[in-house]
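Expect chain and fold; see below:
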Amino acid sequence: MSSQSLIAPIDYVLFDMDGLLIDSERIYTEVTNQILARYGKEMTWEIKAGLMGKPERPAAEHLLSFFPDIDLTVDQYLSERKIGQDALWPTVRPLPGAQKLVEHLSEHKIPIAVATSSIRRNYLLKSTPNRALFDLFGKNVVCADDGLIGPKRGKPCPDIFLVAAKLLGKEVGTGDLGANPNDESKPVSGEEKIVRGRGLVFEDAVPGVLAAQRAGMKVIWVPDERLLALGDSAGFTGDLKADQTLNSLEAFIPEQWGLPPYQ
């Protein structure tokens, strides 16, 4: 990609959190496999790929659908997982390039927000040890349980990114450009499409990339190399067309997107 390929410069940026800003995905994996080990089971990356970016309960339901022979309900799993995760959230740290990029955008007064599938309590547990990073977002944080446009409409629905953009004062409407483009009940105006197209989303999970696309925003995919190695078996579809794919936030070049360059 070159700066000449840009359709319009970016004037606000939205970030996923888990596996993108902080290394919390390792804790999801560690705690889940500790639970499953009692039953002689393991969450492989093929399974994990289908969980990433989804809200808590749908993700748990998807996980346990792979193990119908174990005596573990969704509620029991979530309860056990909560205990294990709470003990480890204080150990999460920013991923390479995250602090530098967010500080850079903040210093240049680029509107930024977090849009995470984590519930608010978990966001607070993860962000508290990393105040130098998350304080830069101020109150511009949207969590899965904050009340989205539609009930239980997590990623790949675009709601969370639309709500985050509205939090930044952007008039983006509520329509979903991907699920049913001809849905006249929630039309998206031409001006709203323009505003959406000036937003840039950073995501590591497939549902998040799809959600950004359905919002009509630009999206940069920063997948874990183990997820990328799975290819089609990770649930990728022909609809997954990120505007750019990076192996790390460290590889991001702001001026390619009409943003101020690093000094």
Summary: Residues 8-23+92-257 form a domain with the Rossmann fold fold (CATH 3.40.50.1000).
